Amino acid sequence: MLVTVLVLSIGLIGLASLQGNSLKANHSAYMRAQATILAHEMFDVMRIDRENARAQEYDGDYSAPPAATGQLPQDELNRWITNLQNTLPAPEAEIQTTPATGVVRISVTWDDTRGQEPPQVFTLRTRL
User: Alpha-carbon distance 28 to 75, whole Å?
Assistant: First the structure.
């Protein structure tokens, strides 16, 4: 009887560990999906406002939202960084535009201590 209880206990501990790892992986995948959606959202905004995007008005490193000024680039960046902060833990973003080619690189970094090794980075590179 004691041996049966011991074997059953080891099996249940293994099952609990498996469930914990599954939850971490699901959370990590959720954060990556959110980063992907938000990066594509900013790219869509830049595609609509190509003139300012090619003039590198959206470019920079962002860990806090810029002040809203009533102008399109700053207001959209303010909204986007605020969305990042409300969605991802400890987010940072970087936007770089190459005016000659129209290639935009948007990188979103976040702390994924509940999932995989921190920090996680999602980079989107595409042409306007």
Answer: 29
The pairs formed by 26-34 with CB atoms below 8 angstroms and a separation of 24 or more are 27/114, 27/115, 28/112, 28/114, 28/115, 28/116, 28/120, 29/115, 31/88, 31/89, 31/110, 31/112, 31/115, 31/120, 32/120, 32/122, 34/87, 34/88
- DSSP SS3 for 62: strand
Start-to-end CA distance of the chain, whole Å, equals 69
Mean pLDDT of 106-124: 84
Question: CA 94, CA 98: separation in Å to the nearest integer?
Answer: 13
pLDDT band at 116 (very low <50, low <70, confident <90, very high): low
- Tell whether the model's pLDDT for residue 123 goes beyond 90: yes
Q: Taking a C-beta distance cutoff of 8 angstroms, is the pair 93, 123 a contact?
A: no
* 103 φ/ψ angles, rounded to the nearest 5 degrees: -85, 130
How many CA atoms lie less than 13 Å away from 94 in the CB half-sphere?
9
Strands (E), the chain: 60-62, 92-98, 103-110, 120-127
